[in-house]
Fold this protein.
Amino acid sequence: MPYTKLKWVLAIIMIFGLVLATNLIDRKNFKGLKDSMVSIYEDRLVVKNIIYQLSDGVHQKELALSRKDSSFFNNQVAAINSQSQELIVKFEGTKLTKKEQATLNKFKESHQSLKSLEENLWQSRSNQRDYAKLISRSKDELDQLADIQMTEGKREFFHGKRRGDSIEFFTQIEIFVLIILAVLAQVIILYSPKPKNK
């Protein structure tokens, strides 16, 4: 009788060990997959929207300059600059790559230079030419930031896909090992040694 109990305990411990090990592996893979999805949303899609809004502000300035709309610079540019500053702060709060940080820093410098020129924009043609060059540079920097979002988004997507493939692979292994353990448990439980003849 004690031998039968030992067989049952051994079989249960084997199955419990497998379930625990597979759970820990799955938990790690699911966490990695979740982190990839969160990163794609927070650090790529949200930032893409921030870049769009910053681009819209730069575009409005470009249009006002081409129309020589001084009332825009007197009445609306302060609100656009304030909103752009808030967007830059939000952008800096995301997870940035080194290239992204460097490009964002360049855009911040261009943004500050634009603000400085806006105070005396209509005093000379050279100010307006410099302003137009800064607008063009700002647009280029925002385009570079948008390209980085695509590159990083793809990288995160493929990282998440690899995690998903890993989960699927381990799930198949788990099923295979579980079947082997079930057969082994049956053998342990059903095996009864023949009594020795004296």
Notes: Residues 2-72+97-190 form one domain. DSSP finds five helices and no strands in the chain.
